[in-house]
Design a protein that fits this description.
It is a single chain. By secondary structure, the chain is of the alpha/beta class. The protein has a domain at 35-83 and 129-189 and 244-336 and 548-613: FAD/NAD(P)-binding domain, CATH 3.50.50.60. It contains 18 helices and 25 strands. Strands 1, 2, 10, 11, 12, 13 and 25 form a seven-stranded mixed β-sheet that branches. A six-stranded antiparallel β-sheet has the order 7-18-19-20-17-23. A two-stranded antiparallel ribbon has the order 3-4. β14 (317-318), α10 (320-324) and β15 (332-333) form a beta-alpha-beta unit. α15 (484-501) packs across α17 (529-538). The longest helix has 21 residues, at 591-611. The structure holds flavin-adenine dinucleotide (FAD) and 2-acetamido-2-deoxy-beta-D-glucopyranose (NAG) (2 copies). Residues 109, 115, 119-120 line the site of one 2-acetamido-2-deoxy-beta-D-glucopyranose. The site of one 2-acetamido-2-deoxy-beta-D-glucopyranose (NAG) has 4 residues, from loops.
Amino acid sequence: MPLTQIFGNLSLWASFPAFLLYYLLYSSFEMNDPEGFITDAETILTEYDFIVIGAGSAGAVVANRLTEVSNWNVLLLEAGGDEGMITDIPGAVQLLQRTSIDWKYRTVAQTGACLGFNDNKSNWPRGKILGGSSVLNYMLYVRGNKRDYDDWEAKGNTGWSYDDVLPYFIKSEDNRNPYIAANTKYHGTGGYLTVQEPAWTTPLAAAFVEAGVEMGYENNDGNAAKQTGFMLAQATNRRGRRCSTAKAFLRPIRNRQNLHISMHSHVHKIIIDPVTKQATAVRFEKKGQIYQVNAKKEIIVSAGSVNSPQLLMLSGVGPAAHLQSFGIPVIEDLPVGDNLQDHISLGGMVFTVNKPFGSTEARYYTLPALLNYTMNSAGPLASLGGCEGLAWVNTKYADPSGDFPDIEFHFVSGTPASDSGRSIRFNNGVRDDIWEKYYKPVMDKDMWQVIPMLLRPESTGTIRLASSDPYTAPLIDPKYFSKIQDLNVLIEGTKIGLALGKTEAFQKLGSKFYDAIFPGCEQFTPWTDDYWGCFIRHYSQTLYHPAGTCKMGPSTDPTAVVDPQLKVNGIQGLRVVDCSIMPNVVSGNTNAPAIMIGEKASDMIKADWLVTK
Ligand SMILES: Cc1cc2nc3c(=O)[nH]c(=O)nc-3n(C[C@H](O)[C@H](O)[C@H](O)COP(=O)(O)OP(=O)(O)OC[C@H]3O[C@@H](n4cnc5c(N)ncnc54)[C@H](O)[C@@H]3O)c2cc1C
Ligand SMILES: *[C@@H]1O[C@H](CO)[C@@H](O)[C@H](O)[C@H]1NC(C)=O
Ligand SMILES: *[C@@H]1O[C@H](CO)[C@@H](O)[C@H](O)[C@H]1NC(C)=O
């Protein structure tokens, strides 16, 4: 639990009075606030018009939009519970992983990637809570590149071009930055989702943007006309608190009579008639009891890129031979769980500075910082876990013809060694020997890092069942760097990151790359491509954006699982609405796109049932 992690540290006991105060103010504020907590459904009917599985980034939106139709009723099923006071604090994001609100997935052992992590595996946190992964995430608000969506459309996904999806990004948005919101062609105000910059940044953030300008990039809004460039982070942030999709889309409508939200409800199976192939009901477990509830119109699967394919396979929709090997009767043979794409990056670079600007734990959990956050929602705890800047840059491999960068930078005013070794090393699964040798010597110094992230991986992996038991985690194999070009692009991105440290903007702060040799890479000549390749293969950090496992495609595409209306091929009354439908992962972070997918799907469902029937 986050609380035991905080209070487990004796040096933090001094913070206790501040936490108590925070807790008291928090409870009185939240209880009386229009955004107040959601109560668990007391009754569950035997039948609803729609059943939505998963209250994450996309599912929360769908539940909201469908219950705008007052004569429809909707059951929203979520395996986790409601948010609490720790999830609200942006600066405490590192404390959320590996707790009960995280599915705590791990990939299978990778070959040629994740070599610096325990068992050569990557930890894959996923939100198990109302709001889903939007509760565990770093809150960065990013939409991707125009060309992503135009490419989807060009592949036969009619209605998904950039011009088609832009209105849905705008519809959700309540942008509170007057300069950004003024660009009304790209931004919206008055939507459910609050977007603004964090209430706190260190001076390193400004240095990052300055450094980018020095390198010839523009300082611009990467969510508007042009993506290439450097910017301060925009975030799903409301008055210094996290704005999850549960807070944005569910709390304001939690008293709608036609919406039942059932928490701690773990879905086991979607019941599909093997003859008519109509999806008719959902089976789930809640507090030890099994329920089976019918859907009159449709079942919407919004369980995310790992659990949506798992659930389809458990229900008899997936690769036939694979399902048969677990004795699951095959209802529809589809390539469910293929096409897994994730954003891999180099985590763990370390640059030191000689100014007191780093986001260190000692600056986060102090009495003044806690008081400031409690009273004003300000100070270091209002930062996005130290993630302060974003940039999209071009390596030598990027298409020179236009605005289609191949690397995204996450600029962080800290490193895995900035938190006294308390959370990040364990969240990422860093091996003890590597921690001791490479990170411990610089622990809690003033540092920053840039995390170069590969935007469009060529490597694709799979989600497969490990068992027919719905409680057994599926097998996740992203096959990082199985296509070597992914590593080549990331090596070039790393070199641009190193150049950033050499700019005047960072030199003014005494910035230095920490030049210890990364354990396991001793055999390579330092600072050559091979050396960087080895570093990347060791600290191969997921940026938590799995996508593509229930791929959308036209009827001519044998690799598609859903059609451009997000209906599961061959099945009636079943759609998938979440990041798993992306034919290709977008060139950016995936929360805002998941919300957009939820908005667009809701309109498609309404169009089907309100107009033609
Ligand atoms: C640590 C972390 C940091 C991230 N940082 C960012 C960021 O800064 N910016 C950004 O844009 N993106 C970020 N992301 C990614 C982004 O949050 C996700 O892509 C997005 O939330 C996915 O939305 P989704 O609707 O596809 O799935 P989710 O939001 O994961 O929702 C799935 C929901 O379904 C529920 N569920 C699953 N299986 C079942 C079942 N069998 N029965 C009942 N319920 C079930 C889950 O509990 C969950 O609530 C981050 C993700 C993580 C984990
Ligand atoms: C991890 O990968 C390395 C290098 O390929 C290998 O030597 C090692 O045995 C692997 N460890 C595990 C636990 O798979
Ligand atoms: C509280 O935070 C704000 C900015 O976020 C800062 O200006 C102010 O000095 C801080 N106050 C204290 C007491 O730390």
